[in-house]
Write a structure and sequence with these properties.
6-stranded mixed β-sheet; 6 helices; binds adenosine-5'-diphosphate; 10 strands; globular; about 30% helix; single chain; alpha/beta
């Protein structure tokens, strides 16, 4: 079990942003949190990332209790809707960043950055800066940066939300390709049902701060 969540809950004042929620995510799974705005998806994701703390419950990553571990101690990569690339760093240096943080030797950084840039079909933009790239290209770079150190889990919060429909469909295929190639466990947030159906191994349907249903895409309409 790559990720195990037990009775995780979060309140803001009297408001239940996430009611007690339990979830098991096996290694290599592509799990999508699908639900309308305000259903608790981001609340759950930021607690898994370690960017906010639950009021109760526990998080286990690779069998180890991570509930109170700070974000940088969790073996987790993140991709956001707004890319969040470092504007003054080159593309190569953006992708290299998580490796530098972990003091990986220069030779290995060069090699891994090259491999990732090839994997996202952007080997020629290594020396450019983010603003010289299109939105779709920037999001590919964000994907490469999140996956370059082979984290155990990658969290994606509406990563394609800022892209137009054609590009979104193309990027869905590319993300699935990276997922297959690297075998990373992915937890993906979207409010787009089609996207969830196209990409997921399982879909976790959320509403009002709770899980309504957890099922494979083809079963999503067959409510119990
Ligand atoms: P989703 O990602 O599904 O759109 P969120 O997890 O962001 O939903 O939010 C769930 C609910 O919690 C929303 O009603 C939101 O307004 C509320 N919420 C989120 N963050 C805060 C906060 N920092 N303070 C107060 N309420 C919050
Ligand atoms: P500099 O040219 O000062 O090294 P770059 O931003 O071009 O700055 O490169 C930063 C780091 O990214 C390099 O030290 C290297 O590890 C890696 N890198 C740079 N260019 C490439 C490239 N074309 N292919 C693969 N890795 C690269």
């Amino acid at each position: 079990m790559k990720l195990k969540i037990e009775n995780l809950a979060k309140r803001y004042g009297n408001f239940d942003a996430l009611r007690p929620t339990s979830l098991d995510v096996p290694e290599g799974e592509f799990l999508t949190l699908l639900g309308p705005s305000g259903s608790g998806k981001t609340t759950l994701l930021t607690m898994i990332a370690g960017l906010s703390l639950p009021d109760s419950g526990d998080i286990y990553i690779d069998g180890k209790r991570a509930t109170k571990e700070p974000a940088f101690n969790r073996d987790i990569g993140m991709v956001f809707q707004n890319y969040a690339l470092f504007p003054h760093l080159s593309i190569a240096e953006n992708v290299a960043f998580p490796l530098r943080m972990r003091r990986i030797p220069e030779g290995e950084i060069r090699q891994r950055v090259t491999t990732m840039l090839e994997m996202i079909s952007l080997p020629h933009v290594a020396d450019r800066v983010p603003r010289e790239l299109s939105g779709g290209q920037q999001q590919r770079v964000a994907l490469a940066r999140a996956m370059v150190y082979r984290p155990s889990i990658v969290l994606m919060d509406e990563p394609l939300g800022a892209l137009d429909k054609n590009l979104r469909e193309q990027m869905q295929i590319e993300i699935k390709h990276l997922h297959k190639r690297l075998g990373t466990t992915i937890i993906y947030v979207t409010h787009d049902q089609e996207e969830a159906m196209a990409m997921s191994d399982r879909i976790c349907l959320m509403n009002g701060g709770g899980v309504e249903q957890l099922s494979e895409p083809q079963e999503i309409y067959n409510r119990p």
